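Translate structure to sequence.
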């Protein structure tokens, strides 16, 4: 499924979440830790909550935020791919009304020879 499959669909949007974690292949990353940037898009039907104005008819942003925080600040992983998949899978299992999810994770502090905003992964 590509992004174009969801263009006209409703979604919850979480942008610029910042957490400190110990993920990476290098020993220094696991020992010292670093900041991670997380964006999440969760596709689900928001028409009922739009009409009822009730939190019971949607998913709270804070619930998805909590999952991302627990994963990033939780046990160390070697790859960002693993971190992103764990956030996505945990969210989908806890909230079956979500039809698709996109998780983007960036590492702004990486050892590369040149300036950059961040390096990362995005999974759908």
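Result:
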């Amino acid at each position: 499924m590509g992004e174009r499959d969801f263009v006209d669909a409703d979604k919850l949007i979480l942008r610029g979440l910042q957490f400190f974690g110990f993920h990476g292949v290098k020993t220094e990353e696991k020992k010292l830790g670093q900041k991670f940037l997380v964006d999440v898009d969760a596709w689900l039907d928001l028409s009922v909550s739009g009409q009822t104005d009730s939190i019971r008819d949607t998913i709270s942003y804070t619930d998805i935020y909590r999952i991302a925080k627990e994963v990033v600040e939780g046990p160390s992983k070697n790859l960002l791919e693993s971190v992103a998949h764990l956030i996505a899978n945990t969210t989908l299992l806890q909230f079956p009304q979500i039809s698709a999810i996109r998780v983007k994770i960036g590492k702004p502090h990486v050892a590369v020879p040149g300036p950059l905003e961040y390096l990362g992964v995005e999974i759908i």
